[in-house]
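New to this. Explain these tokens.
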Amino acid sequence: MPFNGFQTDENLLNYDVFPKVFVKNKPAKIHIRPLGARPVFEPGKTYKMLVCALEGGKPYDYPASGDYKELSVLCGGEGGFEFEHTFTKEQMYFLRFLNDDGRRIIQFPVYCVDDDLAGRYPLRGDLHMHTIRSDGSQCPAVVCANYRKHGLDFMVVSDHNRYYPSLEAIDFYKDVPCGLAIIPGEEVHMPPVHGAESDFHTVNFGGEYSINALTDGPAVEEKGTDKKFRSLYGECPEYMPLEEWENKMQALADELDGLPEGLDPVPVAVFKWIYDEIRKANGLGIFPHPTWISDVYHVPEVFWRYVTEKGWFDAFEVLGGENYYEQNGFQTLKYYEDRANGFDYPIVGSTDSHSSNPHNRNAFICSTLVFSPENERKALIKSIKERYSVAIDTIDENFRLVGDFRLSKYATFLLKYYFPLHDEVCKEEGRMMKQYATGTASEKAEALEVLKLIGGRVQKHREKYFDF
């Protein structure tokens, strides 16, 4: 069965528990509010509550590591609780309420994090998707609205050969109070070099100027060389005519030596130049889908292995694009094998979506969870480079994660107990964004007024549940 959204514990639909995430060794004030459903607690009565650490085992089986702490908490006038507690280890805990004979009434999950995660909010996004400006199915504004409705906090418009559609999306929503961070970007495809192909794909996420438009290609044909279409701030390197670019790449290829057998020098040279240029643009260079089956695998394995060993890309798109095993399965295996062999690089998950409508089986196939202090381009890129990201696989009805074990444990908690509530808040904002993008004049005006009223709700929601 396909994925149908993150589902939370029913107890968290019956009770609001906030904050849900605390910092280790810092006293936390916890609120538990009833939402009109069973079980019902008796105001004025004192209840026994166990704080149960998830990872230590049962104390009566593993007394050296088991960690249960018993508290007495008073039920308030509304049938809820307020109390303070200090959590001492990064992990998930259950707040388990017991009746008079020691049986469980209900329990609520919460999480404690170490200091390095304090102030880093979980932000879910997509770093690779397409619109009708290349080969996608919807315009940039609608793609942004649809993915906000789906719960994304950030996304990039990364059309093939074109950077300017991402600027179009940013400009369209510049005066609209929505919490979606729209990041500039493109999927880079450089032309052949004197007939030698170099069209491996590259995602330029957040770069301040276009790599595609540094020489001839569809973007230059459609928009010309005006820097306002080629850069975020109106500044970028000068345009190179195709012959000049080809000669530059050929010279770089001729300088290469010691290449493994079976490796063509031109694509290697172009690859390194692209990723160096993305870094000059203050972007994140993402190496996508090497085992995408486009007739055969997208790039030779010798090429994949070489650029990995050289450390030339900033992040690897470990998940994305297709739902057959050879792509995401093999890429995941290679990632863990590389880690075991000492190659530890950042990873992301992306849809590579060409339609943002739910009928598209792959519209919501993967995403990335980034732990970042801000939902903003520079902070997101820095956090990914610092390896504060995990890739989320939502190919099937049950989500799976790829990444660091520690972050994956935390992300699992968030996807089960925080993001279902977060995504509900995003839905109305996304719906109003689409109305603003496609409605009549009166509908657009109504949508803008609603967005002004509800703008900032997601950030307030975030601040409510994280005790940072």
Notes: The longest helix spans residues 419-438. The chain is about 30% helix and 25% strand. The mean pLDDT is 96. The first strand starts at residue 15 and ends at 18.
